[in-house]
């Protein structure tokens, strides 16, 4: 991590076999999700690194995104019945669903939510963002626009 205060790069103590799927800056900290374990890694401004495992992990998760949404940090998980369904060309014909959770900073846990406060979540393989649906003509509140790994929406 590079901090302008130090004017140098600093190595962070992170588990060597971590494979981060999503990394985002939120309220002065960096958050990352490990693809294999689902653990959340938090890098503090002091460069202290902590991890936490969500209290209700989902074994159906195939892909995760971290999305900032106003003053909230969301974890969006794409789920399929089995792992094979995620890698086949006709993924749109298979049953997929999304689970959305909001970070509870005090408990270091993710709480499942039913809506995203009127926002639209845009998810692509390597990035994500959110906007108010009312700011974009033609979009419905609390919806997800997913650009699949095969280039389809």
From TrEMBL:
InterPro entries: KIB1-4_b-propeller, SCF_F-box_domain. Residues 2-146 form the KIB1-4 beta-propeller domain. It holds the Pfam family Beta-prop_KIB1-4. This is KIB1-4 beta-propeller domain-containing protein. It comes from Arabis nemorensis.
């Amino acid at each position: 991590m590079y901090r302008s205060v130090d004017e140098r790069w600093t190595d962070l103590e992170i588990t060597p076999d971590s494979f981060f799927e999503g990394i985002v800056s939120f309220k002065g900290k960096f958050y990352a999700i490990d693809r294999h374990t689902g653990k959340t890694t938090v890098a503090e401004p002091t460069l202290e690194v902590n991890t936490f495992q969500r209290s209700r992990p989902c074994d159906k998760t195939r892909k995760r995104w971290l999305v900032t949404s106003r003053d909230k940090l969301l974890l969006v998980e794409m789920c399929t019945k089995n792992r094979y369904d995620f890698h086949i060309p006709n993924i749109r014909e298979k049953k997929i669903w999304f689970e959305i959770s909001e970070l509870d900073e005090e408990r270091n846990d993710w709480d499942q939510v039913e809506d995203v406060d009127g926002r639209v979540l845009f998810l692509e393989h390597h990035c994500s963002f959110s906007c108010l649906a009312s700011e974009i003509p033609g979009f419905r509140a609390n919806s997800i626009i997913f650009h699949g790994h095969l280039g389809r929406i």
